[in-house]
Amino acid sequence: MDRISIIQPDDWHLHLRTGSVLNAVLAHSAAQFGRAIVMPNLRPPVTTVAQAQQYRAEILNALPVDATFQPLMTLYLTGATSAEEIAAVAAAEFVHGFKLYPAGATTNSEHGVADIHKVYPLFAQMEKLGVPLLLHGEVTDSDYDIFDREKIFIDTHLTAITREFPALKIVLEHLTTQQAVEFVSAANINVAATITPQHLKFNRNAMLAGGIRPHFYCLPILKRETHRLALVAAATSGNAKFFLGTDSAPHLTGLKEAACGCAGCYNAPVALALYAEVFDQAGALDKLEGFASFYGADFYGLPRNTQRITLQKQPWRVPDAYPLGADTITPLLAGESLSWQLVA
Ligand SMILES: NC(=O)N[C@@H](CC(=O)O)C(=O)O
Ligand SMILES: [Zn+2]
Ligand SMILES: [Zn+2]
């Protein structure tokens, strides 16, 4: 099969940033996806429905005129999040959940939650009101090896959270390990997960063997091949708990190609092409539509899209970089050739 037509996909985990970066990146997502869950880790973070409304307006304003893309907003959960704000989220139709960043876990997570037990009362209210909890699932203590941080988060926090709040809708974002796949598969139906194209396509060798490649550096960090295989098996299984979330996370090229480079892969320009390549290589193109276009909408209680898109096996070359002022943004796989592309 070298051509498939599917219902238009959505991106259930996306960083769009603001200002000039937003303007430079938005069209790439809007060209492929009908909707996207937009992450709130701005500086300062999006912590109120009023801020989310403003941010949403900025995104809509930055869209190409003919675009139908819909940003689905989220709020950043902090130790200071109030019961009133959770009620406001439940009432606001354009806000779809709270994102919890353990403090210090990733880019712009300084305002995140330092002690997860302290926000249990907030989880209880979210559970009651049906507000989803989106998780960056990694422990942060410097004693923990960076390759183990997702597994330890599951063992020390997520297991307890799902036991205490069985009706809380939880999305464990950007899965990277076999243990995470096993946990989500075994959990109740209120627990789901997103998977990025880079974690499906690459193991840590892509980042570290034969030279250090900062554009493959994101968090949670790429893992060894056994984990990648578990992720591919989950994504292509047809299990509705696993769905598409690119975690496209643009940073200026100068901030990634640095002595201390930022975490985040700018994968929006290559996202659907990479997912198609992975599903094709796994002999599972027939499972792409569920993963990319159905299961996320179903989990969030939103209607499925009705428009269709077509992907074709037809090689193309990824641009070296996209200009942004005096710097650029370098996409994942810059200058490389990809075998699939969106044609309509
Ligand atoms: N994934 C990343 O490495 N970075 C993301 C934050 C996140 O999703 O953890 C970013 O905002 O840059
Ligand atoms: Zn994250
Ligand atoms: Zn992210």
Automatic annotation (TrEMBL):
Biological process per Gene Ontology, one example term: 'de novo' pyrimidine nucleobase biosynthetic process
Taxonomic superkingdom: Bacteria
Gene: pyrC
Cofactor note: Binds 2 Zn(2+) ions per subunit.
Required co-factors: Zn(2+)
Subunit text: Homodimer.
Pathway given in the UniProt record: Pyrimidine metabolism; UMP biosynthesis via de novo pathway; (S)-dihydroorotate from bicarbonate: step 3/3
Recorded catalytic activity of this chain's protein: (S)-dihydroorotate + H2O = N-carbamoyl-L-aspartate + H(+)
One Pfam family hit: Amidohydro_1
CDD domains: DHOase
Domain Amidohydrolase-related: 11-316
Keyword annotations of the record: Hydrolase, Metal-binding, Pyrimidine biosynthesis, Zinc
Residues involved in Zn(2+) 1 binding: 13, 15, 99, 247
Residues bearing the modification N6-carboxylysine: 99
NCBIfam families reported in the protein's UniProt record: pyrC_dimer (TIGR00856)
Binding site for substrate: 15-17, 41, 136, 219, 251, 263
Entry annotation: catalytic residues: 247
Name the UniProt record assigns to this protein: Dihydroorotase
A GO-annotated cellular component: cytosol
Entry-linked PROSITE patterns: DIHYDROOROTASE_1 (PS00482), DIHYDROOROTASE_2 (PS00483)
Similarity comment text for this entry: Belongs to the metallo-dependent hydrolases superfamily. DHOase family. Class II DHOase subfamily.
GO molecular function: dihydroorotase activity; zinc ion binding
Residues binding Zn(2+) 2, per UniProt: 99, 136, 174
Role: Catalyzes the reversible cyclization of carbamoyl aspartate to dihydroorotate.
HAMAP family: PyrC_classII
UniProt-listed InterPro entries: Amidohydro-rel, DHOdimr, Dihydroorotase_CS, Metal_Hydrolase
